[in-house]
Write a structure and sequence with these properties.
By secondary structure, the protein is an alpha+beta fold. The chain contains twelve helices and eight strands.
Length: 381
């Protein structure tokens, strides 16, 4: 087994780092500390992603026919690691290139591909994700938002919650129930809905995670043409499963955690804490978790590069990344004490973002259930 990076990928990593040094503003660390949902970072992401697109990097792993360069998934992995290590300056657009675009490629109509994919690959559009609902957070099959077909339109009514990046989003990838008599995973569809439609109301949910990070979105008699349907009607569960396999390893949280851990180790050395074997053990344990998450993620990327279908390895990688974020965040609090809670500090920003890791793209408990059934093949009660 070959563990070394391809020389071309190593060169690309060097180029990306040089680009970040040249492009990120002097106040980037302060800006990123407020979270990817802040107004400042949302505005910055369009300029930043536009520059990535000009270099052909933003969607380089996409097929050339859709605005990519047919680069391997490893090349996109390099880009993702470097982006997350510095605080993800792509903002919400990491979702666009990781899984929204690929879902449109696989399930979209020719008209949808022709309209949406160029916007995404140019870095000039922001999306949000309308999945979770009150009473149906990680259990997406319990959703109640309905889209009833009336002639050549859908009429949407319902509510989404914990939705990120909404205030600047131009489109929402929306999970709805199109068969009102259905239950569970049946009768669900995915719609690509413009956020400027009458009847859509957004309310921010204040939180400690960051500026404008969580929102409620209400849909009251929202009319959209039926051509916003992504994939077959009532078969949206397949679309969602396909998309989330990409999303679960789309955020290289371990890269950010590794840099945070390096800074914590240096601070511990400066404060004489490395004489404490407990602190040393915790630093070592956290480093082990980082490398485990990295290796599991690489396993998923390797399968994708070989054209293999998704497996439960995606869930394993996701759970490992979640545990890394939590462990490093807690260690920062222990080493820095009250200083770690200073708003805007690197430790505070890491800890606040770690709070979302265990619920984003399905709670850790749901991921563990999937591992039990799909990986360990344990029986269901």
């Amino acid at each position: 087994m070959e563990f070394d990076w391809d020389p071309a990928d190593l060169e690309h990593r060097t180029d990306v780092r040089a680009f970040l040094d040249e492009t990120l503003p002097d106040d980037w660390e302060e800006m990123s500390a407020h979270g990817p949902g802040s107004d400042a970072q949302a505005a910055f992401s369009k300029t930043f992603c536009g520059k990535l697109a000009e270099r052909g990097w933003l969607t380089q792993h996409w097929p050339e026919a859709f605005g990519g360069k047919d680069a391997s998934p490893w090349r996109h992995c390099v880009l993702g690691e470097e982006m997350w290590a510095v605080g993800e300056p792509r903002g919400a657009q990491y979702m666009n290139v990781n899984w929204i675009g690929p879902a449109i490629m696989k399930y979209g109509s020719e008209a949808q591909k022709a309209f949406h994919l160029p916007l995404i690959s140019s870095g000039q559009v922001l999306w949000c994700q309308g999945f979770s609902e009150p009473g149906a957070g990680s259990d997406l099959a319990a959703l109640r938002t309905r889209a009833l077909r009336v002639g050549d339109e859908y009429v949407i009514n319902g509510q989404k919650i914990w939705t990120s990046y909404v205030q600047s989003a131009e489109y929402v990838i929306l999970l709805v129930r199109t068969d009102p008599e259905s239950k569970g995973r049946h009768g669900i569809s995915v719609l690509l809905v413009p956020m400027d439609r009458p009847g859509i109301e957004v309310r921010e949910i204040p939180s400690v995670v960051g500026d404008r990070y969580f929102h409620e979105v209400f849909f009251t008699d929202v009319h959209v043409p039926t051509d916003v349907l992504l994939g077959p009607e009532n078969q949206g569960w397949d679309v969602v499963n396909y998309a989330l396999q990409y999303e679960r390893v789309g955020a290289a949280r371990y890269a950010r955690a590794a840099l945070t851990l390096d800074r914590l180790a240096e601070l511990a050395r400066e404060r004489g804490l490395l004489d404490d074997p407990i602190v040393v053990d915790k630093l070592g344990e956290a480093r082990g978790l980082v490398e485990a998450a990295r290796a599991l993620t690489y396993r998923v990327i390797d399968l994708r590069a070989k054209g293999s279908p998704p497996t439960a390895d995606s869930q394993l990688a996701r759970v490992a990344s979640t545990r890394v974020d939590t462990a490093v965040g807690a260690l920062a609090l222990e080493i820095l004490g009250p200083e770690a809670l200073e708003y805007g500090s690197f430790a505070d920003a890491n800890f606040r973002m770690a709070m979302t890791a265990g619920v984003a793209v399905g709670a850790s408990e749901m991921q563990l259930n999937l591992i039990a059934s799909r990986f360990l093949e344990l029986p269901r009660e």
